[in-house]
Amino acid sequence: MTLLIPDEYPKNLFREDGKRLDGRENFDLRSIRMEVDVIKNADGSAYIEWGNNKIFASVYGPREVHPHHLAKPDKGILRVFYRMATFSVFDRKRPAPGRREKEISMIISDCLEPVLFLELYPGTSFEIFIEVVDADGGTRCASTIVAALALADAGVPMRSLVTSCAVGKIDGKLVTDLSGIEDKAGEADLPTAITWFNDEISLLQFDGKLSQSELNESLEMAQDALEKIYDM
């Protein structure tokens, strides 16, 4: 495969029959497969295949915090390390974590903290290591889900699971679950996550342009998609 540069993106993101390039209707999710207990030496682990995304997550803890000054006397801390393998994208990435990986690590941590009873584990930490081995759009959403599954597999007390999905706009139409090419060549991208114990949004990012009515419709589409994923 060769890397598509912006000038080489398809001019049309819909086929002549009205379906998206991968054959989906506007509101369809890509195929999703989830599995837990896949890394035996971790306290908890999970794996997700979402379209062409392939992502592992492993959880370790509660354990001693290093460096010690990061420990909190009244509650535990959650540390997330999101990494993309050098071969996970067409254009080989540098092995060292970049700014985007650090940002997504922080986003996933902020998204998951509300569902954890960290006050039960003062002075300790839970660490989640996320490894993206194949990336094709929506990795932060898929990583949030697989991290939540790994926490559940580890037996960490949780108020609920967390589900996440991106909706967006391509060729003037709103669609659910953007693929990699739709994310890069589309007009808008809206990753969203919900914590189900209180039905509150714990992740909402936005890139692109949408009208107020399109934004409202996008949030309704996200709600429908997130409920489907939660049922899975």
Q: Describe the main β-sheet briefly.
A: 5 strands, mixed
Strand line-up of the largest beta sheet: 1-2-3-5-4
Helical fraction equals 10-25%
Beta content comes to 25-35%
The end-to-end distance, rounded to whole angstroms, is 32 Å
Can you describe what's shown?
The chain is an alpha+beta fold and 232 residues long. It contains 4 helices and 10 strands; from the N terminus they run ββββαβαββαβββα. The protein has helices at 99-112, 139-153, 180-185, 212-231; strands at 32-36, 44-50, 53-64, 77-84, 124-134, 162-170, 173-176, 188-195, 200-204, 207-208. The strands form 2 sheets. Strands 1-2-3-5-4 form a 5-stranded mixed beta sheet. Strands 6, 7, 8, 9 and 10 form a 5-stranded antiparallel beta sheet that branches. α1 packs across α2.
In summary, what is this structure?
By secondary structure, the chain is of the alpha+beta class. The protein has helices spanning 99-112, 139-153, 180-185, 212-231; strands spanning 32-36, 44-50, 53-64, 77-84, 124-134, 162-170, 173-176, 188-195, 200-204, 207-208. Helices cover 24% and strands 31% of the residues.
